Batch of 4 targets.
Target 1
Amino acid sequence: MMRYVFSVLTMGFLLSIGLASQAFAIDREVAFEDADMQARYQRVIHNIRCLTCQNQSIKDSNSPLARDLRREVREQMANGASDGEIYAFMQARYGDFALYKPPLSAKTIALWASPALLMAIAVFALFRTLKRRSQLDISVDGD
Amino acid sequence: MRFVLPLALFAVLCGFLVMGIGEDPTRIPSPLLDRPVPEFDLQTLSEPPVAVSAADLQGEPALLNVWGSWCVNCGREHDFLMQISRDIPIFGLNWNDEPQAARQWLRDLGNPYRFSAFDAEGRVAIDLGVYGAPETFLLDGNGTIVHKHVGELNPEVWARDFEPRLAQLRQ
């Protein structure tokens, strides 16, 4: 019973966080009439870091710099720039750090490779442990 | 023996964490180092305004200082800028400001700048990769960015990061 109550409370808490972050989205105005363009715009500004307010994207920040960068994205999209061109524009000025998904390079290889590496180590450890356990003698007496 | 692998992993993790301790996350390396100041075409704050461009920053080693009258740390470094403006030309980029407020600021606190270009729309600041005022760029005589400092410029930073580079430029 307690466990049930606890999981309901946890879910409620997580849900409220999700809703709260929706409510705090700053840039709610419609930049493009076209639904696809608007969706693209939302995705692009969500992927660009606000550098004055780190750990927020320019979509979530109301700082003047984020406002200027959103205008830059809107203008470039209206002029037909691709996502890649817009990210490259930000990167040339603010470095890899401006992007939430930094490109693969010699500097970022550790960042990108570490999850796969950790997973490989975990799987290796799991198999080794399972193998060792399967070779153990099962004693019914309990000793 | 069975602790060796977890211990090694833990040590590696600790190594990465220790490396991060001394770093200031607000200091972001600029990709613009060793590049020329991006082209711009702005008006100065002076009355009447004068049209200025990146070419006007050239001639001798100089500073380009990004400031705004709203910016608290710009006020803190202002006296020091006044002081070093006798040694090196300082150009201003007035960012995200109201021209009236900016002019009043210079009247009240003194004007260390050869000129302040008024970046009304913040476009030149974006081209310069500016993310927080004050920012100070050290330029060589050709207008190439040699060093960038984010935050207040003070005697300590000046002696550590600027003076050695400036001495090299002036050789």
Note: Residues 77 and 117 of chain A are 37 Å apart (CA to CA).
Target 2
Amino acid sequence: MSTVTQADPAKAAGSASPLSQRRPLGDRGFQILALASGLLVLVILVLIAVTTTQQSTSWFTTAGFKGIFSTNWNPPNQFGALPFVYGTVITSVIAIVIAVPVSVSIALLLTEVVPRRWAQPIVYVIDLLAVVPSVVWGLWGILVFVPWVQRIYSSIGSGVNGIPVLGSLFGPPTSGASFFTAGIILAIMITPIVTSLSREVIATVPTIDREGAYALGATRWEMIRGAVWPHSQNGVVGAVLLGLGRAMGETIAAALVIGSSATVTSRLFSTGYSMPAVIANQFGEASGEFRAALIGLGVLLFVITIVINLAARGIVERSTRRMRGAAVSGELPAAVVVGGGPN
Amino acid sequence: MAVATEQPAVDLREPAGWRRTKNRVATFVMWLAFVVTLVPLGFVAYTVISKGASAITWSFLTKGPIPPNVLPVTIGGMGPAVIGTLEITGFAALMAVPLGVLGAVYINEYGGNRALARVIGFMADVMTGVPSIVMGLFIFSIWVLHFGYSGLAGAFALGCLMLPVVIRSSYEMLRLVPDNLREASYALGATKARVTLTVVLPAAVGGIVSGALLAIARAAGETAPLLFTILTVESTNTNLFSGANTALSTQIFANASQPFLGAQARAWGSALTLIAIAFIVMIVARVVTALFTRYSR
Amino acid sequence: MEQPDQKLKPQLPEPTATATEQAEPAPGTPIFDVKNVSIYYGSFRAVTDVSLTIYENEITAFIGSSGSGKTTVLRAFNRMNDLVPGARVEGEMSYRGASLYGSGVSPIAVRRRIGMVFQKPNPFPKSIYDNVAYGPRINGERSKRKLDEIVERSLRRAALWDEVKNRLRSSGLALSGGQAQRLCIARTIAVEPDVVLMDEPASALDPIATSAVEDLMRELKQRYTIIIVTHNMQQATRVSDRTAFFSVLTDSKSDTRTGVLVEYGPTRQIFEDPRDPRTQAYVTGRIG
């Protein structure tokens, strides 16, 4: 969030002035109320960490580091979390690999290609992807997409079977509900946020830099490579990280289409599990140590996503702030510049 | 394309073919990326509408209790879930929207350049990235373990998810209110609270309301935070404050992986209902934005 | 949308000296021919009915107050206005006999020959070397040896080589304002343009950097044709061979404003013997 510069005349009036009187109670009360509401954010974040950790301490202490990062998940006795951590990482990496090129392309389309009045309708359409609830993507995934994609996987799987690297990535056993399917659904779900953040970053590239490239006789694509990309690559990395954080925490859609088996395998077309998915699916019948382990998975997820979000927000904020202020000058009205290059 | 032939000295036509080709390919890829995203959107919209519409009837929307999943969709209805979604989301909004707006007021009106305000703003952004299932586990640990499952617990979880979103969107709107409005009010001797309540918030109200409505629309579709807080029962519970409750989203989750056609039909019908609710809220948000365009973007 | 044309047209004064035949400097080869050009942004007519001829290997200065359209005309020479949605040029602009806005003319090819240096130095966030090599690279130059040559030659011509030769790999953003502007000039001449357009190239610089850039312009004139927009009349007298004075014309009836070319001629004549009272008022500082 960019810094806010705003005078505080109430304070400037100063209590030492002869005209001063005590601030009315309501005024002070309102300030306290506002402050308390703001502080609520910090309080909730701290409480999330404290209460969930409390409920899962027994898992962390009895299982120990080795127990936590083992592949043995046999409730109610063994609670090794590795298959879920692995599945979370794999599915979100797949999601990023699919969603980022698409999102950055759309962001460039919106900022560099289409005229402004067309950009808004396109944004509405992309945002519709985010309006569809996670559970509806999951429902569509399990009942429509999985049966359809199953045949594609199995023909790819038998095609690459035996080929060294491809075989161990895409070979059998294949299943419609799999790491890869979860990755695709997650990719669809994070596309809106990665697009809108990338667009925000790319839009802060100063017009004068674009013109500098065009003035050398660059085509639009050469201009993007030369002027836009060097300026925005850091910010786009931040946007990608945020997308990654979202993908890791996304629960319901993944829970429905990932196949629900706690395995660690390099085969992307086979069934797997992820941290949020196992919590959602098994929490209902869990108690005691089992429940502690599931809440503990939540704590791990919280820590991972918070770290990613801190890093991502920091990067995005820094790169957009650095470029703001570098505005257009000259006789042109700044508002009309940008957009629609040659052709 | 007609090539200018009257130019002996210079050739101002398009540069070498490969440069033009690269540029066209790049532009084509950008459009392609947009079209690629339309495919799942169109696909899911088509399926939800076609399968959901055939399940939805008046009794589906209002009748209860929700029948066992082996029964066909014509029996009973999702009434309890519709009521549950509306009351839980509504109460979550009742808590989160005022607190969020106040939080934004603190950041923009009182915070100034203070580090605390910047930290709160930044952490609110970070909080939007907290996975919704973690929010569910949080409310389970802090509330459900002590006071049991209830609609209220679900509302707490949804409220926690909405809070940072409302803060962010309200903050953006407050930032757009020009300082001279504030100064005009101060010049009349108003206190800061008064300036904020009578000048700043009214000036930004359109954007704030539409931002809050968008947060509500998103929250209405959330499933993960409700799983461990309301427990998903089959009959209507109009008492938000005690006893297990139910919601459309958790019902979809429960029915989605069932092999029974009746359960699947109920899931599609509920999905369409849920999306319709979210859409209605969003349309209201757009109308509100249109009505108050003066200070919103 | 209603066009302001008809209302304004009858009142437009003829530019006093459209194609001055005065002896000094001896007119060389005409490079640009501008005839009755009007430029619009949407329905706003920024410049009305400009006609002038620019000559090879000269420095032509565009002076005038803000809003008189001098930058708009400058940006029309290499079709930078194409980047502004709704911008449109009417009339005839030709470059070495070829119409700049004819069909089949690519703005990319135009800009390759007619480079531009901007008001604010705008090096790309890349190394000094990569900034200069950018233009040759997009035009297909891949040879490392050739690129090295081009970079050194361009930086030498831009009088920057000695200052940066030991840190070609450091960022172009790390240079001082004057150095950054000379880097932008080096970047522009690295593609061997025919014409260099300069939009107030020294307005963001301190006096020392300004004088370095002015020296450079006199040097570059041997190889390139230069058109410069400037707010600084001393600068125009110091560097330019010809000067075009633009002014704002306000039509009180329709309350529309537009830029017009008032007078164009050899720089000395414009400043010492202006023929139009408005030019006189401006160059003597009565209107600012």
Note: Chain A is about 70% helix and 0% strand.
Target 3
Amino acid sequence: MNATRLKMGYLLFLVGGLLLSVPGFATVEKSSTPAAAPAASIAPAAAPQKAEQKSKSTADHSKFEELKRNFRSGPEVTKACLKCHTEAGKQVQHTKHWTWEYINPVTKQKLGKKHVINNFCTSVKTNQTFCSACHVGYGWSDDSFDFSKEANVDCLACHDTTGKYKKIPGLSGHPNYKTMEWPPHSGRFREPTDLKKIAQNVGKTSRASCGSCHFYGGGGDAVKHGDLDSSLKMPEHYLDVHMDAKGLNFSCGECHLSDAHKVTGSRYAPTAAEQKGALLRGKDDERNPTTCRACHGDAPHTEYAKLNDHTDKLACQTCHIPEFARGRRPTKMTWDWSTAGRLDEKGHRIQVKNSGGQVAYDSKKGDFTYERYVKPEYVWFNGNINYTLFGDKVDGSDKVKINEFMGGPDDPNSRIWPVKVFRGKQPYDVENQTLAVFHTAGKDGAAFWGNYNWDKALKVGMASTAVAFSGKYDFVETEMSWPITHMVAPKEDALSCVQCHKENGRLEGLKGIYMPGNNNWPIIDFLGYSVALLALIGVLIHGGIRYLTSRKGG
Amino acid sequence: MSERIYIFKRFERFWHWSQAALIMFLMLTGFEIHGGYRLFGFENAVSYHTFAAWTLVSLWVFAVFWHFTTGEWKQYVPTMEKVDAMFKYYVTGIFTNAPHPFRQTTLTKHNPLQRLAYLFVFVVVNPVIWFSGWAYLFYNELSVVGLGGLPLSWIAFFHVAGAFMMLIFFIAHVYLATAGHTPTAHIKAMVTGWEETD
């Protein structure tokens, strides 16, 4: 355990005598070998001396000849990487980070970012130039992208340690190679990306590198997941007991153990109910290492063993993540596309901010609401999720479940899980009764974010799918659930018993559980209290008569 | 003329009162756990309830031992003799100062209704509460004894039903404790061991 933890804490780069540390990433490494400095102070001329250890890695990429040159583009860097890391490109190409595709082995549904619809920006289709800013590749702008070309793999997206590598939406997965204004119309300009420096400083993934995409899902910090945001770069103890920068200081990879670039743990195929104990080091039984039990075992509560009795019904997360969006930023809770496109009298885009400073209305996107410290909703979940995909029939008069967590109280593989339910309104085809996707971003005449014209945006969006579009659309209410599993609170902040064990507690309404504290047996309560009350009345009357007759008699 | 007889020995009195205190406390904490009012807080109530339950178990180990070694268990052998007379006494006689149909002695210290009531508590109410209570406590280990599929709601059903039976017994018992020679005679006897009789 200790060895792994030390392995994770990682690298200090000394370049030209300067300590370049990325906020939220680099941790100062304590040398495990006796330092050279004290020896030098005693006997300055003594030889041979041990050189100062810069990092745990056995390779200093700044010394590599292949990287001592200027790079004009990302793919050029990749080619240099692949000269030594000969298998890395192929490995990445087998991962979801590259394919954005996942076939659910149970439902056979074709999932992954490439295929699903959500109720945030709704779909990747026709918007790849923008969406691929979070693809581990270069150049995915449309369906003609070559997924087999290894030079298209982006190594730096995950292995940058400088924090200076930024893939810009609109550049099809590339960083900027020329000076450009970013964000648009902000008056701020980004210098060309210094690929040489970034390439010479590559290293392991970190909270910051994973977070550069995963913290910003849904189009901004904390927006999508609710349990992932940029406060996890350097989290406090209360926010995440494992990632606590001054404590255990876990990286993402500490739980999401990876091999051959395959990162474990996936919300497309989560392990809802781990039945076994802790993972044994070295034993390869293909179990998911990201579960709580993979480390904590099946009876983790030693002080108060009764808590272990809950594990047949509850996921650990249910008690140990009492609220989500506990970071610095609120998470988005609703998104109503139906109001998008309203412009001011001059025909310009409108943005309205709420009292918290967040954008509450944007002509490009519609109305939003945000929340912090949100109590999750709770569902039975067996790890299987059923999606509403392109072409699936929806009922416009009812709320559409974009995804549905399967499972129930009688399924031994189900546990009660906390979820963020994201609610919205988005376009659907009234005649064909399918969800409709639209062309969102781009500099062409159809993109909604330039023209505010639903007809055009929907027509182009739908043409990119195999689904027919009638041209008649309206907006339908949708719901999408996200499992809450990050930002695990310290045990002191876990749910107390009474948060559920009372009337109208947290799990109220959830089927198939007996909840002491919530009067679950109304019949026995009615009978019990009635008979007890009758007995009490009986003895009072009996006693009263005795009292009266004894006085009479006395 | 009243006479005094020694009925309750020292251990028996200790057993009675500590058991009384434990059962009242168990009812107080138990019904809070079941829901409806808040006194100690759910978490504390569970801890206290569990602790009190184990204390009662320990007490019972001694009580069972005592009853067998002293032969006092015979006091609970049921009899239907004079049961009708006892009923008649509680329904009418007690109001008219009629003589008590039962005469306490050291060898038969309980009247026939008491015998039946206590025996019912020992062979029905207690086992229901105890076995369901243990099932509650060892809920996740039940598969070891082949009861892995037993749902918590059933266990709780029996435990709560047993608790209500105990509550009803408690009400009747406390009231009938005043139905002695004088209203406090039985209670005094349970404290001192000496019962005054007619």
Note: The first helix of chain A runs from residue 2 to 8.
Target 4
Amino acid sequence: MKISIFGISHATINIIESIENFSDEIEIFDLNNNFDFKNEISDKKNIKINIDQNLINDPKNIIENSDYVFLASNSDILNSFFYHKFIGDFDKNKIQMIILNKDLYEMYKSKNYSVINLFDSSKNEIVSTIRS
Amino acid sequence: MYIIIAGINNLSYQLGEGFITQGNEVTFIDPKQFNADRIEKSLGFLSILGNSYNKKTLLEAGINRADYFIAAHQNDENNLVSCQIAKFINSDIKVITLLNSKKNREIFLNDDFDYIVDYDEILGNSINSYISDYSNMNIFTDNDNYTEIRIMSAGTDSRIIGKSVSEIELPNNSKVIAIISSSGNISHNFSNTINSLDKIIFQVPINK
């Protein structure tokens, strides 16, 4: 099983720790490099980092060959933008986006989007999403 | 009417200025002090500093009583979320968004958006219109009489539509020969106004 994650943020490490036992390959995408993050995951196998500043214009690489996608950047608007870009071509039940702003989170929750917020997410919730 | 414009740039500035001239009430939302200062100097205290996808900022701008919300940011991700939250707070508001990239059109095709303004399309149409207004094609050169017969087409967005022949800028000393309508009718009544897809045939002198 391949899992893609967009965004290098505090949430990214939590997501990796929660899913690494259930995935054969994890690919992390971002627009900019983060060397601290790179060092932090250096001991983890099967994790690939893909930095591409053109992702905004051509984000489909993120979902290509992926079984699950997490949108976990620090930018709510980018996470939301990619979510909307992907739901036409990808099973929306297999995408999860993190929304940090509580009002936006509540709006998307009411629209039945697959959205998680750091206040009420837990590792188990993320894991159960993938195992279901 | 009360109109909230998200994003301050040349386009939204012109838009806001026009709305104010027509007697509407306008508020701009932008996160940059520099942009707010620009509005303050020329139009008055009409801007709120903040992100237009922030609920509290929208409430401060009076989203609940606004008739229109225009997302005019120059990136589609900002416009997308701003419109969604504006509509979420006030379901009666009419939401208009600027589309910056044609590739993103599909994400705006749902009930959260009432009207999409395609920036590339407007620009393209404007250029096409300009070219079709001010260009004409030589179809025959009469070397004996030192004249050319040229044809000018009125494209669908042409500025010459609705004008009479005397109001159109043609090369100096041109003589209009005929107007051919899109259905093929040939008219010599030059007081009629030009319709879309009409063609004007005219003679113009050339240097000996």
Note: Residues 2-131 of chain A form a domain with the Rossmann fold fold (CATH 3.40.50.720).
